[in-house]
Every structure is written in C-alpha cells, then in structure tokens.
C-alpha cells in the first residue's frame, strides 16, 4: 500500500497527468477517423434504405432508433479498444522515461541501465503478442465450461499484462538475468502485487486512466527491491 500511495502521488503530478492524456487523445483521433471511414458508408446505406419508404413508418422509426443505439455503443467500444491498443504500444516508448522520473524523484542513489534498443523492444513485444495469441487459442475450448468459462479469459490477459509491463519497466532497472532471479526470489509476492494492478485495469472506464499508475507502481516496486538488495 505504501508503494501504491507513492505511485498515486506521482500520477497526480503535472507531467504524469499530461502523459496520461496522450493515449486518450491519440486513441480518440484514431478511433474517430477509422470509425468514420469504415462505418460512414454503411451508415449512409442503411439510412437510405430506411428512408426509402419500403417499411411502415413505425417499424422504420424503431429500426432507426435501434441502429442509433448500436452505432453509439459501437463507437464507444471502438474508442476504448483504440485507446487500450495505443496505451499498450506507447508503453514501449514512455515507460523508460517514467522509470527515470521515479528514480530521480525517489531513488537518486540508484543507477539505471541503458535498456534495450527500440527495435529490440518492439521485437520482444511482437514475440510476446504471438505467445499471448497462442495462449488465447488454447484457452478458447475451456471458455465453454459453465460458470468457470468466463474466468478462464482472465488468465491469458493477465499473462499479457504481466509480461508486457515487466518488459517495459524492468529493462532499465535489471538485466534479464537479474529479472529472472528476482521473479524466482519474490515468487507469489510479485504476482500478487501485479494482480492488484491488473484488477484495476479490468474496471470499465477506469482502465483508460490507470496505465500510467500501473507503470509508476511497478517502477516503485522494482526500484525499492533494487535499493534493498544493494543496502
């Protein structure tokens, strides 16, 4: 809870608020233009058909209302999906900067590593994405189990969250060997910490604002562990 509190204080600072708005703005722009160019022709076609006088007026009115609701819900879901994809991808670029921000503000005695090259980071992320899709496909048959099925889906997405966040944050704090040793040493404690962050991201709408807080929290966790190991 102490680490969460520190991360929340950092998240409310001006640089972090501005950074949190970047994926929202970028995702909104992408969602608007992609949705407009993909859906607008279909929207015009359906309106022309409904206004053609083929159906009785009352059926026409009901279908127009249903189409409007479907369009509105689809636009919101499209926006949320675009923002989440942008957040996942931008994490490769701004996570090292966030870690450096936390290090300078709270752990000035520690030194950060150079981190991987941009191409290396994108390559690791692509490899992770393929592994995630493989796990997702393997989990698909289990999702039809009554009651338990919907919970099965939480596992592959937690795997993606855990690995991608560790990939983004730990690369400038620990070497790969140190990270593996740390995960073996901490075991469930680290998974429990990241599970708490993951569950925050499951909450609708809140998941649009928590990625910066999640990176800040993990940065505090790993930097505090590194400081403890060196003391």
TrEMBL record:
A Pfam family: EI24
Membrane-topology annotation of the record: Multi-pass membrane protein
Coiled-coil annotated residue ranges, if any: none
Subcellular location: Membrane
Ranges that cross the membrane: 16-39, 65-97, 118-140, 152-174, 195-223
Domain of life where this protein originates: Bacteria
Keywords: Membrane, Transmembrane, Transmembrane helix
Protein name: Uncharacterized protein
Organism (species): Wolinella succinogenes (strain ATCC 29543 / DSM 1740 / CCUG 13145 / JCM 31913 / LMG 7466 / NCTC 11488 / FDC 602W)
């Amino acid at each position: 809870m102490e680490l969460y509190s520190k991360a929340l204080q950092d998240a409310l600072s001006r640089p972090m608020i501005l950074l949190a708005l970047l994926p929202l703005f970028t995702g909104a722009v992408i969602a608007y233009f992609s949705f407009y160019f993909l859906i607008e022709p279909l929207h015009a076609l359906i309106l022309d058909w409904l206004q053609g006088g083929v159906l009785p007026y009352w059926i026409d009115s009901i279908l127009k209302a249903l189409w409007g609701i479907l369009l509105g819900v689809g636009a919101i879901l499209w926006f949320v999906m675009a923002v989440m994809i942008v957040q996942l991808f931008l994490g490769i670029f701004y996570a090292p900067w966030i870690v450096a921000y936390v290090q300078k503000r709270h752990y000035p005695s520690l030194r950060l590593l150079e981190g991987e090259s941009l191409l290396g980071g994108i390559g690791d992320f692509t490899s992770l994405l393929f592994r995630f899709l493989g796990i997702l496909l393997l989990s698909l048959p289990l999702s039809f189990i009554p009651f338990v099925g919907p919970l099965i889906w939480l596992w592959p997405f937690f795997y993606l969250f855990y690995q991608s966040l560790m990939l983004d944050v730990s690369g400038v704090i620990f070497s790969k060997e140190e990270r593996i040793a740390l995960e073996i040493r901490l075991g469930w404690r680290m998974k429990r910490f990241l599970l708490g962050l993951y569950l925050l991201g499951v909450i609708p709408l809140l998941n649009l604002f928590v990625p910066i807080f999640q990176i800040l929290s993990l940065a505090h966790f790993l930097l505090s562990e590194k400081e403890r190991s060196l003391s």
